[in-house]
Amino acid sequence: MMFSSIQADSPENQWRYQLDRFVKNHQQELAALTWGLWLENGSSKGTIGVDLQPKPHFVYCPQAAVENLNDQVDNKLQEVLGIIEHYNPEVEVLMIGIAKDQIKLVYFEPEIAPPVCFKELGKSINLLLESLEQKMAEQLRFDFG
After folding, report:
1. Could you give the residue ranges of the DSSP H alpha helices within the chain?
2. 141 pLDDT higher than 90
């Protein structure tokens, strides 16, 4: 698993730390959600994102938007584009955290494969979205100034 060891030592890193913790505590549900959305849309709408403002909610990040952002930041997101391109939804979870002009890649391989998580939870995509967005609203607290 790839969870960074970001500490909540500064306001700029607080959101990253909290998002990491949330992801770690909700791996199975996030894996189920990403698989369900993949079954519904494939990569046609882009990569799933977690937009933290004004309150945490899920969005799609179209490939063209990520490529455009990469161009604006002098190709500093080239690795992110490579991960998106080679993402395997049957074994990995990939999302982009978005907050205050910053992004964070959420990328991990859950203990249970995403298709199995989706089947075991047995919830619709809409129920998963609602449940996870409610949990994010309760558990993630940010002060972006």
Report:
1. 11-25, 27-41, 63-72, 78-85, 114-121, 125-139
2. no
